[in-house]
Amino acid sequence: MHHTSVETFSNAAIGQDPIVLRDIQKQSKNIAVYQRDLSLLQEELTQTMAKPIEFKTSGLDSEILSALQEYFETYVGHGTGLLKDISEQLILFKQISGVKSFRLLFTTVNNNMCRRYHTDLNSLRLLCTYVGQGTLWLPDEIVNHKAFIKQGNNEQIVKDESLVQQARTGDVIILKGALYPDANPIVHRSPTIEENGEKRLLLRIDTNESLSF
Asked: Which CATH number applies to 3-207: 2.60.40, 2.60.120, 2.120.10, 3.40.50?
């Protein structure tokens, strides 16, 4: 665990209380990480991984919550704790982002998704990897912005490989994207899992509207 060095990254807010996620609104922060323990959900998560999960919807939080509940009842068939947890993350994200409409994806992933370091074309995104490896993200100090702008490869973009950070399984993270007002969006990528046959269970929630300027 990289706790000691983590606190020194100027662009990150990291803590073990969900209130830390509110720090994403600070000008100096482009990632907020709520570190938590999901051991109570372990059994449900194991059951959920037994079948391919793909749930995608968008709309008001109330619409998403009822569609999610229906999906769990008809397809997942168990996982009340997991459903409750996802619902809580959506409600928390709504409070923090101040928007009413969202895009939500809850899915099993067995490919590398976004293997290149990139920034997102949105205002805010919440991610939680319930099973498997978490998202990799870069402290501002190690981003070679020239190489990034020129679409260099990962090796050119990262100045110091030893300082690359990775969200832990179960952590809730909020990322700032390029559409956030005056953003310095976070540079991040998906973990490499395809080559060794790993799987992830991922929750992704995006704001569906730009923040009011």
From this structure: 2.60.120
Largest CA distance in the chain: 49
CA torsion through residues 157, 27, 36, 79, sign: negative
Bridge partners of residue 204, in order along the sequence: 105, 127
Residue 194 CB neighbour total at 10 angstroms? 14
| Sign of the dihedral defined by the CA atoms of residues 17, 23, 24, 28, in that order | negative
Q: What is the per-residue pLDDT across 156-198, written as a single tens digit (0 to 9) for each? A: 999 999 999 999 999 999 999 999 998 899 999 999 878 888 9
pLDDT band for position 209 (cuts 50, 70, 90): low
